[in-house]
Amino acid sequence: MVQATPFLLVLFLALGAQGLSVKKCSLTGMWINDLGSNMTITTVDANGDFTGAYWTAVSATPKEIEVSPLLGSQHLPNQLNQPTFGFTVNWSFSDSITVFTGQCFVDDDGKEVLKTMWLLRSRVESIKSDWKATRVGTNIFTRLQS
Question: Which among 142, 48, 134 is positioned nearest to 86, based on CA atoms?
Answer without folding.
Answer: 48
